[in-house]
Fold this sequence. Notes:
By secondary structure, the protein is an alpha+beta fold. Helix content is 40%, strand content 11%. The strands form four sheets. Strands 1-2-8-5 form a four-stranded antiparallel sheet, sandwiched between helices. A three-stranded mixed sheet has the order 3-4-11. Strands 6-7 form a two-stranded antiparallel sheet. One iron/sulfur cluster binds at residues 192-194, 196-197, 203, 208-210, 235, 237-238.
Amino acid sequence: xxxxxxxxxxxxxxxxxxxxxxxxxxxxxxxxxxxxxxxxxxxxxxxxxxxxxxxxxxxxxxxxxxxxxxxxxxxxxxxxxxxxxxxxxxxxxxxxxxxxxxxxxxxxxxxxxxxxxxxxxxxxxxxxxxxxxxxxxxxxxxxxxxxxxxxxxxxxxxxxxxxxxxxxxxxxxxxxxxxxxxxxxxxxxxxxxxxxxxxxxxxxxxxxxxxxxxxxxxxxxxxxxxxxxxxxxxxxxxxxxxxxxxxxxxxxxxxxxxxxxxxxxxxxxxxxxxxxxxxxxxxxxxxxxxxxxxxxxxxxxxxxxxxxxxxxxxxxxxxxxxxxxxxxxxxxxxxxxxxxxxxxxxxxxxxxxxxxxxxxxxxxxxxxxxxxx
Length: 373
Ligand code: SF4
Ligand code: SF4
């Protein structure tokens, strides 16, 4: 006998999910939005999305016997997070790597369900790692409504939601959509620093700081560097301005009072932007393990640090930026040149670097920096 729907909910709550809803296992009409988004190239370099297009649109095609989805949500709201001395880190990435703790909870739930009689291997899922349209499943199951920011907003918990799902062979009664809409609000569209929300419900990832500071490899677009401001990893602007964000019960819970998985990772208090700029492989492997920030790669983190330093324009950081002009990584050298040009474009290190630099892309950054570009 499979567990009753009430027991499934109880087990999911026990495993750490505040929001538990049942819905269809496919994205339904949201699938076409996804196709259009891909066709417009708005996924940028996230090729795994295009590569898994068919599996995403039809989960039953790769997991036979799937009948319904258990949509799951965890509130991660909280205070602003930043590196020591500055450099904002998006709230979802400030604690232990959410891929790990969400997956742990999903796996724990699956084990509990199997112990209650669900046949082994008939529940599959994850968090941000399996090819499903997480937000579409969450919306269809009623975790929240699809907002103009393309986020899912829970009527009870607001928009700071980590989403996960279990695709299951159980026939679970569907909960239906959640109440709520954005109404006439356009706060996130107006506040987005890069104009990435190109229309209600449509985010162009190529302009979104949650993509450009994390998923993007190589050089950041010069046009977006200034818009990055002091955001070192990710961006919370469209959530911070959202009137629904106050619904997060965790918003005012700080430090060690927060749930263990959400407590700030120790790298936040131990590393400054200048130190990240010089982050070597040994420290990266030893100290940054277990944070979601590793998703950006060591090069990406150092690039992001340079961009923020270029926006903060503190003259005290000029020696560190000058030193980074001699780095072995061209991405770091290029962004250090851009940043030093903004901090002190007459710095002699820029002239020296122009003489020594062999990489065309970095040379162009140096020339631009020297000419106030
Ligand atoms: S995360 Fe930041 S950059 Fe991306 S859409 Fe939201 S406000 Fe814009
Ligand atoms: S800021 Fe306004 S428009 Fe944007 S998601 Fe929130 S309610 Fe919707």
